[in-house]
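Write out the 3D structure for:
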Amino acid sequence: MITILGIESSCDDTSAAVIRDGVILSNVIAGQAVHERYGGVVPELASRAHQQNIIPVVHDALKQAGIARNAVSAVAFTRGPGLLGSLLVGTSFAKGFSSALNVPMIEVNHLQAHVLAHFIKEDENDTHQPEFPFLCLLVSGGNSQIILVKSYDEMAIIGKTIDDAAGEAFDKCAKVMGLGYPGGPVVDRLAKLGNPKRFTFSKPRIDGYDYSFSGLKTSFLYFLRDELKKDPDFIETNKNDLCASLQKTIVDILMDKLYQASVNLKIKEVAVAGGVSANSGLRNAFEEYSRKHGWKIHIPKFAYTTDNAAMVAITGYYKYQKGEFAAPDVAPYARVSI
C-alpha cells in the first residue's frame, strides 16, 4: 500500500489530505477569514495563519483517515507556484515530517495538481477518471490556461491568459460593484437571479488559444462609470443583471477558445479545474457543450476546485510510483509553469 500525506499552503488555505492507493481518506482545509477586511490576500498575514493552522490541520487529516503517522509512505507538498511565505510554511513542515519519520518528500507543482485532481478516487471502484489525451481548462484567480494532458506527467499549455486571469476579472469587477472579497462566489450567486442577456460587454480578439480579460474589466468599469453618472443607484437596481451578464461574457470567452482547441485537436475528452470551476455558469456551459458537441466532460467535486491537499496527495501518489523524490534542501518557488 502507498499512503501519501499531502500538504497545500500556496495561498491562504492550509490543507492536509491522506490518499491510499489513489483513494481519498481525508481532506481537511482551514481558510483564513482575516483577509476579507483588506479586499484581498495579505501575504504576511497568510504565512502567519499557515503557521498556526498547519499542525492542527495535519493532525485532523491523519485522524479522519484513521492512520498513524508511521503509516505514511511519503509526504507530498506544494513547492509552487504561490506566495513564497506561505509555501515556506508547508515546505518546512514537510521537511520536518520527513526527517522525523524517515520518509521521502515529494515536491508538487500546484498547477499540475489541479489537473490531476480528476484522478482522485472516492473508493476502490471509482472509474470516473479522464482518458488520455484530454484537454483541461484550468481557471482560477491567477491562471486561465488550456492544457493538453497526454499522461500524468506530460502536460503542455497550449493557451493562456496574456494579462488578467478569469478569476481575477470576476473579483475585480465584483469589487467595483461593492460586492466584497472574494467576489467570484457572490457574482455567481447573484447571476442566478439575473438576465444574462441584459447587458453586453466587449470580448477580446486574440489569436490562437490565448485569453485576455483586461479589456473586459476596463469596459465593465467604464460602462458602470457612465451609467452611474445618469443614475447613482444604477448598480444597486441592476446588480443581478450585471452579475449575470458579466458571468456569461467570461464563460463565453473561456468556452469559445476551449471549443476551438477541441475541434482542431480532435479531442472530445474535456475537463475543467481550478477555483473558477466551481462557478455554476461554467459548469452549465460544460454540460451544454457535452450535449451539443458530444464531449465527455469531467467536472471536479466542489471540494477539489479550490486549493486543497487532496490534489497534492494524488500527484504525490503518481510521483511516488516513479521514485520522484525531493532533496532535503529543496526550496519553494513563487513562479513556475507546468
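The chain has two domains: 3-126+304-321, 134-300.
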